[in-house]
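Proteins fold reproducibly. Next comes a concrete instance:

***
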Amino acid sequence: MIAMFGFSTVALAQNAQNPVVQEQQQEKKTEIKLEQLPDAVKAGWEKSTYKDENVEKVFKVESQTNEFIEFIVMRDSDKYAVHFDMTGKFLREKKIDAQK
């Protein structure tokens, strides 16, 4: 029992020091319309390979250290979160659960 408590304490302490975990908890997502996108993001999207994808939703995501735009797109039967920074630069694509 003591060993389990010690392991839990260490795991909790490591999570508290993990900035990725903390940042995810402090993100603020606001749904926006395509017309509300900054011009730089619109231009980046139009130059990207994603421009013809079916956009379901668009979010502005803000944390204490970062700000980006998240496009939720459907490609075939898969759903993706596609992120662009506020200057229109592509950041990443992440496959997400299509049930969301």
